[in-house]
Amino acid sequence: MTIELNGLSKTVGSKLILNDIDLVLEDHKIYGLLGQNDSGKSSLMKVIMNVLLPSEGHVLIEGETGADRPEKLKQLYFLTQDDIYPKRARVKDLVRWMASFYKEFDTANCKRLLDTYHLDENRRYYSLSQKEKSLVKSSLAFSVDVDYLLLDEPGYGLDVYHRHAIYDDLLASCKRHPKTVVLASHVIDEITAFLDEVIILEDGQILVHDSVERLANQAVLVCGAERPVRDYLQGKEILGQEYDDGFIEAVILTGEDVADAAEELTLSRLNLQELFIQLTRDVRQAGGAGNENE
Ligand SMILES: Nc1ncnc2c1ncn2[C@@H]1O[C@H](COP(=O)(O)OP(=O)(O)OP(=O)(O)O)[C@@H](O)[C@H]1O
């Protein structure tokens, strides 16, 4: 069972918010969906969920579109940051609705999680604090044993202790019922350890899609004068580069020992968060370095 996005674009008004996305989400993998604010993470998940309709291209769930086979969408669950619940809904209503809509919903597990976080089911959802709302949403999401979970910043408003607690709940949910997870987050360091693959979005396009193992272990920043850097980059896998007044900064993937590089080059290994910052930083904020194509 896979989800496949082919040539997918979305335009809202005159703005292109998703741009020609090709992506295959494979069985039982956990994908980290990374990107600066407004890069298109939520929009991408909404298009997969058929909440937003693509302007071009399509999303296939086991080879069929959600429009053709709406029941396929029941194999997906989306934790969204949008306010989707009725105004006066109580927590216990949400639990009841989940159980009636998803046959795979584990009510006992959900109640146990709500209990763990001291959440009173009689409270009205919109009277809860941001922390409590996030814990309710994650308790619901991690109790529905569908094949695909799309999670839009599930740790929003949570402190580091509770963020780690819900990562544990997520992993327990994957253990109970193996599933494919797409996890959008701005807290990269905390999630790297349990991701299989990373997708970095920029301006609605996929900038990088690779295994976390390769990105976290093989990313290197190469800096130096143009000539030696260009010589070193020959035949290397380049993820991004910037040229500024005779100097180049390039991000590459390499399994080679960085100590073997020429003396006039500076090479430093990047962890996933550093790689993300390096690839997506705003050039103006980074000190005016121009793109080499400018
Ligand atoms: N319904 C809409 N109408 C107009 N513009 C929209 C709409 N939905 C999204 N956008 C625009 O699309 C772009 C991508 O938004 P999106 O919410 O998908 O980004 P994001 O990566 O999830 O951001 P964040 O990390 O801040 O949650 C933004 O420029 C946003 O303003």
Automatic annotation (TrEMBL):
The protein's GO terms of the molecular function aspect are: ATP binding; ATP hydrolysis activity
Q: Does the keyword Nucleotide-binding apply?
A: yes
Q: Which InterPro entries match?
A: ABC_transporter-like_ATP-bd, P-loop_NTPase
| Transmembrane region(s) | none
Which key words tag this protein in UniProt?
A: ATP-binding, Nucleotide-binding
Q: Which Pfam families match?
A: ABC_tran (PF00005)
Could you confirm whether the keyword Nucleotide-binding appears in this record? yes
Q: Where is the ABC transporter domain?
A: 3-228
PANTHER family in alphabetical order? ABC TRANSPORTER, ATP-BINDING PROTEIN, SKFA PEPTIDE EXPORT ATP-BINDING PROTEIN SKFE
Q: What is this protein called?
A: ABC transporter domain-containing protein
